């Protein structure tokens, strides 16, 4: 639920901006109100991943704003994005090499142990991919396949993997995963233009 709510927030912000530029007051008020309601719903889910996604999307939106405001030449824009990407990659490598990533993750409150269980779940999901690499297990079958193959049990209690790419690969095979990557590339290209 939190991921779906998260996807709606940028659209609400964008609609508010478009209607404001068009000088339409009522649609601006409605889109801002809807965005705040969706954000309130996101807050009530308590999903740390969705909030991290919102922070990441906000950082990217800020970079897009900087690029549009100060970098007009296509060469300068490419240089800006390459520099920003290299900076982000360098930061992540620094966190990994200095073991700071583990320290940061351990500071996140995790009373349910979901951070540990999700990484275990992802590892189990990777073994499920090896069982059905080309065809996948079928749409919405993770909750059936996971306990049978990974847990050796028939007790079904997990609906999904908490990882969209991994779940699509498990359920729809390599072609589904490639289609998701292609769709992501199309959206990224569209956003770049």
- Report mean pLDDT, rounded to a whole number: 81
Number of strands: 0
Shape category: globular
Helix content: over 70%
Given helix and strand content, the structural type is mainly alpha
Structural account:
The radius of gyration is 20 Å and the shape is globular. It is 79% helix and 0% strand. It folds into three domains: 1-70, no CATH class; 72-109; 113-182. The protein has helices at 2-22, 25-45, 48-70, 74-97, 100-107, 114-131, 142-149, 164-192. It has 193 residues and is mainly α. The chain starts with a helix and ends with a helix. Keywords: Membrane, Transmembrane, Transmembrane helix. It comes from marine sediment metagenome. InterPro entries: O-antigen_ligase-rel_domated (IPR007016), WaaL-like (IPR051533). Residues 34-181 form the O-antigen ligase-related domain. It is a multi-pass membrane protein.
List the keywords.
8 helices; 193 residues; globular; mainly alpha; 79% helix; single chain; 3 domains
SSE blueprint:
Layout: H1 2-22, H2 25-45, H3 48-70, H4 74-97, H5 100-107, H6 114-131, H7 142-149, H8 164-192
Helix pairs in contact: 1-2, 1-3, 6-8
Give a brief rundown of this model.
This protein has 193 residues and is mainly α.
